[in-house]
Write a structure and sequence with these properties.
Layout (H helix, E strand, L loop, with lengths): L1 E11 L2 E11 L10 E7 L10 E3 L13 E3 L5 E8 H4 L6 H7 L1
Antiparallel strand pairs: 1-2, 1-4, 2-3, 3-6, 5-6
């Protein structure tokens, strides 16, 4: 397993938001089924609830009982545990996309 940090873009409480995935993925790019990590999500204006999270295209981001949510010591930031790498693949921010938004 390879350690990975990915910038991703999700919808949080109805607004596009950059988040970070930290965890692992299979080292062989052909096999992206393995690996788990956690998300760091910024939720401005209130307590983060699971139903506030969606993929960047607006599709449901399914969270299970194993996805523990906890407040972290960063203003308006939450941690979502046990997120599979495969769940964030469609939301990974391409470096070229970042440059276009600046």
């Amino acid at each position: 397993m390879a350690r990975v940090v990915q910038q991703i873009k999700l919808v949080v409480n109805g607004k596009p938001s950059y988040c970070v995935y930290m965890g692992t993925k299979e080292e062989n790019d052909a096999d992206i089924t393995g690996g788990k990590g956690h998300l760091v999500v910024i939720c401005s204006g209130g307590k983060f609830e699971p139903n506030m999270l969606a993929h960047r295209d607006g599709g449901e981001f399914k969270l299970a009982a194993e996805n523990k949510i906890s407040k972290i010591k960063v203003r308006e930031a939450y941690r979502v545990d046990e997120v599979p790498y495969t769940a964030i693949i469609p939301d990974i921010v391409d470096p070229d996309e970042e440059e276009q938004e600046e």
